[in-house]
Structures are given as C-alpha cells and as structure tokens.
Amino acid sequence: MDLTRRNFLKGAGMAAGAAAVAGLAGCAPEAQPATSDAETPTELSSTSDVRWSWDAAPELPADDQISETYDCDICVVGLGAAGPGAMYYAMKNGKKVVALQKLETMHNGGGGCGVFNTSDPEKYGLPEGYDFQTIMQGLVDATCGKTNHALIRRMVFKSGPAVEWLRDNIPGANLDYVLLSGDHFGTAWAIDGWESTKDGIGIVGDWICNWAQENGGTILYETPATQLIKDDSGAVTGVIGQTADGSYVRVNTTDGVILCTGDICDNEEMLERWFPEAIGLPHFNARDGLDGDAVKMGTWVGAAIEPVAANCQLHLDVAGNAQFKGVPWLTVNNKGERFMNEGQWFEFVTNSILHQPNHECYQIIDSHLLEGIPAYNRAFMPPDNMEAVEGMVAEGTGFKADSIEELAQQIGIDPSQLKAVVDRFNGFVDQGADEDYFLDPKYLKYAGIKEGPFYAFHYTNGINCVDAGLLVDDQMRVLAEDGQVIPGLWAAGNASGGMFGPDYPARYLGFSVGRSVTGGMVAVQSILGTVDEDF
Length: 535
Ligand SMILES: Cc1cc2nc3c(=O)[nH]c(=O)nc-3n(C[C@H](O)[C@H](O)[C@H](O)COP(=O)(O)OP(=O)(O)OC[C@H]3O[C@@H](n4cnc5c(N)ncnc54)[C@H](O)[C@@H]3O)c2cc1C
Prior knowledge:
- The structure is a single chain.
- The protein starts with 7 loop residues before the first strand and ends in a 7-residue tail after the last helix.
- By secondary structure, it is α/β, with parallel strands linked by helices.
- The chain has helices at residues 14-24, 82-92, 132-141, 149-169, 201-214, 268-274, 293-300, 346-354, 386-395, 404-410, 415-431, 441-444, 511-528, and strands at residues 8-9, 42-43, 66-77, 97-100, 114-115, 173-180, 184-191, 218-220, 225-230, 236-242, 248-259, 311-316, 331-332, 360-366, 398-401, 454-467, 470-471, 477-479, 485-491, 496-497.
- α2 (82-92) crosses α5, α4 packs across α13 and α10 packs across α11 (415-431).
- Helices cover 27% and strands 21% of the residues.
- It has 13 helices and 20 strands.
- β6 and β7 (184-191) form a beta hairpin.
- The strands form five sheets. Strands 3, 4, 8, 9, 10, 11, 18 and 19 form an eight-stranded mixed sheet that branches. Strands 12, 13, 14, 15 and 16 form a five-stranded antiparallel sheet that branches. It has a three-stranded antiparallel sheet with strand order 5-7-6.
- The structure holds flavin-adenine dinucleotide.
- Residues 77-83, 100-103, 107-110, 112, 114, 224-225, 260-262, 284-285, 289-290, 293, 313, 318, 464-465, 493-495, 510-513, 516 line the site of flavin-adenine dinucleotide (FAD).
C-alpha cells in the first residue's frame, strides 16, 4: 500500500499500529495498558500500512497515570445538543450517570431544534397534521440512498415525543412550536426562573447540567474522553478521560457509554479524509473542540465509520447578516455571472456557491421584491420588511444604489456585465420562463429587478459542522465493520452516522439538533430496553 505523509503517529507504538490495521478489517484487538509513556511520539516504519493518524490505537494509560476512578451505570461523553438530554433521561430512569465534557461548560453550536410528530400539529399551523409520506420520502431522497432508513424513521417519529418529554419533565419548562418550511416545527424554549446564556435547546441543556450536578450526577468538565475501555469479550466497559493537569480519569460503566462528542470540523486531517472542500472555510461554531474524538475512540474499538463522504452543514454567514439567503432571487458570483438555479434546495445553493471563486456571491434585488416573500415557502425565510434590508446595508453586507451600474461599481463587478445579466434575467421574468437555469416560474414571477433603488447582498460560505459519524443501528447502538453491535457502546448526534448521507439536508431546518437530542434519549431507551415504548 502506498505510504503517505501520515506515517508519524502520536502515542502509538508499533504494536498499536499493527492492531489498528487489524481494526480496519473489523477486528481491532483490545487496547492494552501501557508499559511506557503513552504520550511519546513514535515513528512508524516506512512499511507500515497505517494511513491516517487515528488508524493506530494508542495504549491505555497505566494505572499510575489514573488520578481518579468513577463507577457508574452510564457514561455520557460530550455535553452539546445530544448529551444533556441523554443524561437527564437516564438519571430520571434511575441510572447513575457520569458525564465527561471537553469544555468548561456544556456547549452546542446551534440551538434551533426542529422536530416532527409533535402532538396537536393543527394547533400550530399544520391543519391536516403531518404528511409523513412526503416527509420520509424527502428525507430519504436527500440522502442519495446512502443511509439507514430505519434510523431516519426512528428519529422522525421520536423527535416530537422527545422534546415533549423534556417539556413535561423539566419543572417550569415552556415549549412553543414554530412552523418551519411548511412541514415541521422548530421549538422555542423558556424555563421559568432559569436564566441562561445559551440559545434554543442550549437553554434546556444548560438547565439539565445544573440539575444533574445537584441531583447526584457527576459532570467532569475540561475532561475530554480520550479512549474507550473494552473487556475480554469485546464489550465497551468504560472511558478514559484526560484532565487539565494531564492526568487521566477512568470511568467504569455497567450499562454503557454514549458518545455525543459532535462532529469533525476542527480536525483538518479528518476534513481531508472525509470532506476536503471544507478545508480553509471559516467555522461558525463559537467554540473549538470538535475534533472527531468519537471517530478516533470508536475506530480504536473496531467501530465502523459511515462509508460516505462527510455531510457538511455548509452555510452562509450566520451572524444575522444573511437574512435573505433562503429566497431564490437572482444570484451572481464575484465576476457578475449567474451560475445556478436559485430555487434549488438551500443545501444545494450553498454547495453551488462553494464552487464559485472565493466561495462568495451576491443576491440582486430591487425595492419591490420583498412583496413576494409571503408567497415563498422555503427554508430560511426572511423578515419581509425593509428595515431588515436597510440593516444589511448599514452593517456593510448589503449595498444600495439607484442604478444597476452604480450597484455593480460598489461591489466591484463590471457594470456592463451586471447590467446584461440583470436585463437577461428580467426578460425571463417577463416571459415567465428562465431559459438558462429554469428557475421555477412560481419564484421567477416575484424576482424582477426593475425599479430602484437596487440592492446587492453579499454572502460567503462557512461551516456549521461536518459529520462523519460512527455507524449505528436505529437504537443508536454502534456497529462494527461486520455489522455486529459493539456491546456497551452507543453514539448520538453528529458522532453518529447513517442519517444524512453525503450532505446535510438543510431544508429540514433544525433537524440536525432535533435528531441529536432525540438520538441521545433513544440511546438511553435502548440501554433500558424500552426503545419501542413511549418516552
Ligand atoms: C453557528 C451554528 C448554528 C447552528 N444552528 C443550528 C440550528 O439552528 N439547528 C440545527 O439543527 N443545527 C444547527 N447547527 C448544528 C448543530 O449545532 C449541531 O448539529 C448539533 O449541535 C450537534 O449536536 P451534538 O450533540 O452531536 O454535538 P455538539 O452540540 O457539537 O456537542 C458536542 C459536545 O461534545 C464536546 N466534546 C467533543 N469532544 C469531546 C470529548 N472527547 N470528550 C468530551 N466532550 C467532548 C464538545 O465540547 C461539545 O460540547 C448549528 C451549528 C453552528 C456552528
């Protein structure tokens, strides 16, 4: 096998390297206690078959490197969107839980939690209830067939009940639903008497972490999990974590470990492996630490990683300055060229922009286009008021001019080029048919750019998250390469794969968080043996 630049491994000896090669074939031997300093970097021989740094399982720390040992039923690893709900559901079902968290606080990148199958959908804007035929078809179509449909089904049908269980079991919790994309709901949360600096489901997670510590749970902050412990039968029986002072803690579990460590976006080597297009793009997560630790730890105990390119939650400036990104208005690249059908799904829009020079684009509108907004029914619907438009101008991501040529000058595009593109597009609007990219006439009719003032909105790509997860079944049990369940190991949220396929279907707004929260709680149900029952 061709040996690449990845032949330099930290904390991995020759024996471990060989073990990892076996692990790739689905039978990684159990990691053994170290006999020497596990942190010593070791050169592999040039004949090694190891390609990526995580291919080689490091040795477990020696007993004298362990500063503390904890015994529990369930260890939850990672407190973001998925972890807190898992911890709470487990504790409320009588389980003793220890949680390891890499940061000094719980942290989830985004809090918008989208769910399906809620009770009383008609009360919140779905008079006919859920159209599960269309929803399930849409979700599986979005994955190019590369996913586990039973898992998707489980997440869809359990998501509403999961958030409603949280609402009903958190004293003072208020849950409100907001209709999204015309077919499912976002969740708005408030908890009486609880002030949180977090957003959305983060408010709930934050409350849970506080509650857990006051009610017999243990949370070890600033203690990232580094390895899983297996017994002779191959079952996972615990976790090693590393404290800020460099020593290790050992958490022994009787029931299971649930990995909720999020995605791989901060690990450039993993991006190179699973989603090289993301390298160099800005990250929108406020905190680092999404290093693909579940992939590493899982791989070292023989877990299979989903066998598709990572799905990237590719976005456009998320700091509130891209309010109109979901609307299919004329869009040009930085050369003033139109390059896509603006009416495609939002995840495809972001991918089309990714492939333009400098990953940037401009939406061009006139002063009347907001009038059409109520007629659109898409992800990321904007505010339909001119204040929002003027707000973007004021903050410098929007531009305003009395003529298209003047607008072009402001954004550094050749005026005659932009004028020609706008005139051609207006011709399509007038005839009701887009002969270039066939934007749906139902959108086209609202998209004419005719009466000034004219506006341009500037957008660039960035990453919310990049998921390459451990393969799980529809109970979130982690699977080995041969499809067998690895006893004692579950994964949820972005640490788990098989859900979204080669791209994240952003059109189902909030379902990244929604499936994470749901998955964590389903993992606990699986441990309890109640996965087919209500929460
Ligand atoms: C700016 C932004 C906005 C977003 N908005 C939305 C939205 O509105 N709706 C939506 O659905 N999705 C959104 N997303 C994506 C969403 O945040 C994630 O999909 C979701 O948080 C995944 O949940 P998770 O629990 O799997 O991982 P995370 O929420 O990322 O949590 C993982 C946690 O594990 C911890 N961790 C990592 N490694 C270890 C380790 N080794 N040991 C212990 N702890 C570890 C991390 O510190 C982190 O707190 C957004 C993302 C970003 C960045």
